[in-house]
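Request: Show me your protein:
***
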Amino acid sequence: MPTTAMSSREACRTVKVHVIGTTDRTRTFHPIAIGVSSGEGTEDYAFIFDAIKNAAKSIFDEDFKPAVIVADAAAAITAAASRSFPGIPRVVCWAHVYRAVQKKLSLIKDSDKRELLLDDISALQLAPCKEAFISATQRFLEKWSSPETDDFLDYFK
């Protein structure tokens, strides 16, 4: 069987490194595992999630059941999480949300309004529970509804 040589630069582009961790009450990230895969598909993430579940069972003799799955908005992560951890809530990482929101805020011409919107959005992520987040988000949408902000708010929803 013929083999193909590839440069180290090409090899680095084909290997994906995934850092998996947990957060504490102060929202500090603590890495617990590193997953290496050849892609970023549902099967890749499911393999990593299942490996963590199996390791936890082997080491602690307990079923691993996270309270929530936090990651970027990749559909493959969502599909793998629902398969490996059925019924566990899935949320998008605040850093990813913040960067995406900053880009979309360019739809708002007024820089002072953009800054105030970003301040309010930043406050939303501090909600202590799902119910408070939903309530605060509704108030946020009502507060900022206007012809100038409606395109941004449609994206935000």
Notes: The first helix runs from residue 8 to 14.
